[in-house]
């Protein structure tokens, strides 16, 4: 079963500005999240961000970026913009993995995709 992971990554967090780029063991947090998503077996992984520094970090790690507007109130709104821009079909399984979850087990991402596919 194929599925897509979209990772919203907002740079201008009010509690921790620049959160996606916080260094964890020598890598930006967003790169750790990207790596977990890769381990899940997703067909496609897109990081949705409104900040060039986040985009550069993701691209340097070989990831795909979709630049989004800066006015989103939530990661879900950012994800919806990516879905619209990419034109995914109604039956595409899309898993929303937050950009501040560097320790999320890949098996959980895959399980969510399987649960969504059964709906």
UniProtKB/TrEMBL annotation:
Q: Return any one Pfam family short name.
A: CTP_transf_3
Which segments cross the bilayer? none
Cross-referenced InterPro entries, in alphabetical order?
Cytidylyl_trans, KdsB, Nucleotide-diphossugar_trans
Q: What cellular component GO annotations does this protein have? A: cytosol
Q: Which GO terms describe its molecular function?
A: 3-deoxy-manno-octulosonate cytidylyltransferase activity
Q: Does the keyword Nucleotidyltransferase apply?
A: yes
Indicate what this protein is called per its UniProt record.
3-deoxy-manno-octulosonate cytidylyltransferase
Q: Which Gene3D superfamilies match?
A: Spore Coat Polysaccharide Biosynthesis Protein SpsA, Chain A
BP GO terms, sorted: lipopolysaccharide biosynthetic process
The UniProt keywords, alphabetically, are: Lipopolysaccharide biosynthesis, Nucleotidyltransferase, Transferase
């Amino acid at each position: 079963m194929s599925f897509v992971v979209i990772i919203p990554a907002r740079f201008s967090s009010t509690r921790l500005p620049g959160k996606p780029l916080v260094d964890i063991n020598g890598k930006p947090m967003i790169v750790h999240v990207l790596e977990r998503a890769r381990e899940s077996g997703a067909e496609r992984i897109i990081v949705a961000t409104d900040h060039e520094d986040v985009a550069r970090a993701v691209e340097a790690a070989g990831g795909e970026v979709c630049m989004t507007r800066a006015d989103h109130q939530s990661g879900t709104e950012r994800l919806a913009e990516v879905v619209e821009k990419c034109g995914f079909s109604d039956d595409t399984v899309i898993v929303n993995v937050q950009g501040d979850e560097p320790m999320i087990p890949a098996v959980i991402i895959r399980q969510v995709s399987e649960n969504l596919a059964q709906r």
